[in-house]
Request: fold
Amino acid sequence: MAGIRYAVLGSGSSANSYIFEKDGFSFIIDNGFTLKELSRRAGLAGFDLTKVKFILLTHTHSDHFKGVGTLSRKYKIPVVVHHLLPDDDFNKMNPFSRLDVVPGKEYNFDSLSLTPFSTSHDACCPLGYHFSLEDKTFMLLTDTGIVTDEMHRFAEKTETLFLEANYSEDLLMSDPYPEFLKNRISSDKGHLSNDAAIEFLNSMTDSTPEMVYLCHLSDSNNSPAAINAALALKLKWIGNIKICNKGEIYESY
Reply:
């Protein structure tokens, strides 16, 4: 993957951010960190935030957008959002500028080819992203309670997949969370469980994707140990998996 670099700068219930770079052109998906913390994490992974051309936003929950406005204003970076996102929701971030995208439509800039797609989450106008940098393909699929045929089609033509494995069903059911919150997390507008993520991978062909990052782990209802136990018991798909522990940085190989 010469010339292409990426990193999970942090993933989990508290803050999420991903960065991608190709020959000096870079973009970020989400930022739930303060500018100081994002700068620290990007620096540790060897990325220069002054080179970021776009911030792609998945949705307006604080663990994904809390630091977007500050980052956008500091470096005058436009924020890419669903074209139907209300101005009131967008302006809460107070960003530098806005770029609208339509789910299912392809967009091209420099070496980036991008197609957003709709997800199922309890936020206004949530998106996932399928994109390519030159001939390398990526997909970010988190914060959705269900998977769709469209998501399957994108995943089948993806080399590197960032896939939500938010909660263990057993841990969630035994958690002292109030019932309404458990129902919200496990609903069609909530998150993908470990079992749902494994079922999604089992539906893939053996050759795709090549690399999967299991991410957006719940702070209290999941763990690498719980995921590994589920993988050992249920995974049939053959490929490379990296479990992204909460808040840690993971750089491309």
About this structure: The chain has one domain: 4-245.
